[in-house]
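Lab meeting, action items carried over

1. Structure of the two-component assembly. Owner: GW. Status: complete.
Input record:
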Amino acid sequence: MRKHQNLSMTNPIISLKNIDVTFQQKKRTIEAVKNVSIDVNRGDVFGIVGYSGAGKSTLVRVINLLQVPTNGQVIVNGETFFDGQGAGKSGVQIKPNELRDRRRKIGMIFQHFNLLNERTVAENVAFALQHSPLKADEKQAKVAELLELVELTDRADQFPAQLSGGQKQRVAIARALANDPEILISDEATSALDPKTTNQILALLKKLNQQYNLTILLITHEMDAVKEVANKVAVMQDGQVLEEGSTLDIFTKPQAALTKEFIETATNQDKALATIAESDAITTLNDNEVFARLTYSGNSTNEPLITTLYQKYEVVANILYGNVEILQGTEVGSLLVILSGSADGLAAGLQSLKDQGVSVDILKGKQA
Amino acid sequence: MSNWFSQTFPNVVYQGWSGDTGWLTAINQTIFMTFWSAIFGGLLGLIFGFGLVVTSPRGITPNKVLFWIFDKIVSIFRAIPFIILLAFIAPVTKTIVGTQIGSTAALVPLSLGVFPFYARQVQVALTEVDSGIVEAAQAVGASFTEIVFGVYLREGRSELIRVSTVTLISLIGLTAMAGAIGAGGLGNMAIAYGYNRFANDTTLVATFLVLVLVLIVQVVGDYLAKRYNHK
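Predicted assembly:
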């Protein structure tokens, strides 16, 4: 996959530049998206994380112009869909019939599946093929092929109401893939599903990304989902992108408070922290002790951190919580520890940790 | 049996079966008026109902001017009491069908009377089609007509059948008033030959027949609505 990416154009497949989306309500102006610029490369699984109301859904609808932006530029596959300043609809650079054609190359799946209730599974998939150049029997074969891909061949003649949530989402994925799109937009596609089904859907998305080099935009409020599949992440709040980077960087060196919050939730650290913070060890922390979070990834995990601390600086680490995640093939660990030692020893020990690429958060104690 | 019937319902028997004022004639007139005004009024109602939904601010082709026009026409026609509409529309009726009286003439006010009611019902039925489904159709590049016929009409089918049933039943009610312009029918039978002549038995039987008609429409409508609902 990586090789392929290097061979292909260096131009991003989706380029959003300075996008504003403003809604005019009677007397209020709502800025749903504020000056957002994002580049998505071919083959990326790009996670957009944020709470509901952050503007994620509005932002991705700009890509296929389901939502016409107020300002900015939308370039997909090198073609400018929109370019305008306060231009509204007049900024659309593409004819309606061309737009419909381009939309067929941008698959989209939704939180509530949005299947046609009055059509069978096979008819739902076929609905997306109405304008396909394929002949009738080829369309049938295509539908069969797609249903096999999502493992729903035996459900072809059933109605959506007869399916489970995960099955419905798989039908939606089959429909989204009908016209062999290069981009798939997943708008909270796993948010209405239970954890097991969520993982199945994420695994399917990952497979599509790897096998077909499908570029995926994954909108979610669950960092967990991003952790599973995305190689890049943008964190959104109040219509703005707070932080953007590789999943590994975001997880190991989160900058924004919101990002940290998301990661804590995703790694169950928030629950551990809440319990630990109440414990006697923390509430009665001594002067020569600090309560800290250590986060490290890949390269530094080979070093015996804790042993080094003790041997070189006589700092004792009491591990209260530990967690290791594998992100994009790299181990990411986090520890909640109480470090105790002399003031000088602590300062030197913490510095040496930082030097080794371990990020240190003092949660409580003198140096906080 | 027939002796008992003619003694209990003397006026019913007096009306006869197939003459100008007979029962079969009245039934036919009611069915004739209901059927054709359902076709014309129904079509107008569908057009206005769909128009209201697609041009609304949240529709697939928002258009303030068209929406305003659809909305106001429907509101105005809905506001006119039907019995007044019958008289008020008479000159228009004459231009369209050449006469102001009779069953055929009644089709014009009946159609115009029922369409705004139906348009609102259609509007509600189609608004209930999940906007997410419409969006999903747009996302796969469906055209305007594909969304109207393939999504709204298909997804709203069961609900449209349900509101059509309600409309058809209220239309049967309207035909009863059409007697006022000499359109005949079961309503006219109940009023002109029953109530006005103190022939309570005629009123009773006419009412019963209207009830049977309503019941048939209701049962068929319910069946079809259920048949086409896969939610």
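2. GW to write a short summary for the group page. Key points so far: The domain at 2-105+181-246 of chain A is CATH 3.40.50.300 (Rossmann fold). The CA atoms of residues 64 and 103 of chain A lie 6 Å apart.
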